[in-house]
C-alpha cells in the first residue's frame, strides 16, 4: 500500500479488521508501505495498489478478489487460495530475478537521495544534477562497453 493511494485508504478499515481476526484465522497479516520499502515493491513486482499476496510454505499467490472483510476471510476459511495459480517461479519474490529487481529499486532510491543531496543540501540547480547523472550514465556505459 501507499499512504497517498485512494484505493488503499478505502480498504484500510477492512484490512485492519482482517488483521485483528488473523489469530482466529490462523494466519499472519501485514502491510508494507511501498514508499518506505521500494525494494519489496520491486521484489513483489507491485504494479497496482493495493496489491495483496497470500503466502503459504514459500508459495505465493496474488489475491485478486473483492476487498471486503467477508471476502478476505472467505478466501482463507474456505481455502479459495488453493484454486489460485501460484506466482510463476521466475516472478516469485524469492527468485533470483526478483532479488535483482529489488536491487534496482534500491538503486533508484539511492539515486534519488543523491539528487536530493545535490539540489537540496548543496544548492545545485536541478538541470545540473540531471546533467551529472546523464554524464555518469554515459561514462559507466562506456566503461562497461570496453
Automatic annotation (TrEMBL):
It is found in: Endoplasmic reticulum membrane. Residues 1-76 form the Thioredoxin domain. This is TMX4 protein. It comes from the Eukaryota. The keyword tRNA-binding does not apply. It is a single-pass membrane protein. One of its GO terms (molecular function) is disulfide oxidoreductase activity. GO terms for cellular component: endoplasmic reticulum membrane. The chain crosses the membrane at residues 127-145. Keywords: Disulfide bond, Electron transport, Endoplasmic reticulum, Membrane, Redox-active center, Signal, Transmembrane, Transmembrane helix, Transport.
Amino acid at each position: 500500500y501507499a499512504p497517498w493511494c485512494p484505493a488503499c485508504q478505502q480498504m484500510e478499515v477492512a484490512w485492519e479488521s482482517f488483521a485483528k481476526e488473523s489469530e482466529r484465522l490462523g494466519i499472519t497479516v501485514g502491510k508494507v508501505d511501498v514508499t518506505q520499502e521500494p525494494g519489496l515493491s520491486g521484489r513483489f513486482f507491485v504494479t497496482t495498489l493495493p496489491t495483496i499476496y497470500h503466502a503459504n510454505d514459500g508459495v505465493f499467490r496474488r489475491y485478486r478478489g473483492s476487498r471486503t472483510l467477508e471476502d478476505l476471510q472467505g478466501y482463507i476459511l474456505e481455502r479459495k487460495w488453493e484454486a489460485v495459480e501460484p506466482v510463476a517461479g521466475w516472478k516469485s519474490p524469492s527468485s533470483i530475478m526478483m532479488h535483482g529487481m529489488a536491487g534496482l529499486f534500491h538503486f533508484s532510491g539511492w539515486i534519488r537521495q543523491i539528487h536530493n543531496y545535490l539540489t537540496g543540501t548543496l544548492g545545485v540547480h536541478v538541470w545540473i544534477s540531471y546533467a551529472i547523472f546523464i554524464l555518469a550514465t554515459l561514462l559507466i556505459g562506456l566503461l562497461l562497453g570496453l
